[in-house]
Amino acid sequence: MKKLLFILLLLPMAAFADCSVNWTAPTENVDGSPLIDLTSYNLTINSTGTTPQVISIPGTETSHLVALADTGLNPYAIHMTALNSGNLESDPSPEILIQVTNGNCVVLGASRPGSPIDLNISINITIN
């Protein structure tokens, strides 16, 4: 009878960091009218070579905890949109670049010149 040999490879697991994303809830539509029917936000997380992850967040929230892997590779690009009861979606907020290093979330800056460098995102919904 032949013996089977099993080899167990222990590969290092990527560490994760809990990154808190905070934003200021919109109060007006871009036309200046009061925003009275905000229903949710879409938080999009993207990193080069991966499929973007979209997280739906209730419109009553102004923060969300996101677990991001410490891969040592490309930073994560995060942006948000807001949706109203008619399912109309705002333009995306500026993208914020985040790198996870040694279990910590580090804001690298904005991916577009002139964008804010913190995670406080102000969102307006365009109603046509």
Describe it.
This protein is mainly β and 128 residues long. It has a single domain (15-122), classed as Immunoglobulin-like. It is 0% helix and 45% strand. It contains no helices and eight strands. The protein has a five-stranded antiparallel beta sheet, with no helix packed on it. The chain has a three-stranded mixed beta sheet with strand order 4-1-8, with no helix packed on it. The protein is elongated. The protein starts with 14 loop residues before the first strand and ends in a 6-residue tail after the last strand.
Put the structure in a nutshell.
The chain is an all-beta fold and 128 residues long.
Helix/strand layout:
Elements: E1 15-24, E2 38-46, E3 53-58, E4 63-70, E5 76-84, E6 96-101, E7 104-110, E8 121-122
Parallel strand pairs: 1-8
Antiparallel strand pairs: 1-4, 2-3, 2-5, 5-6, 6-7
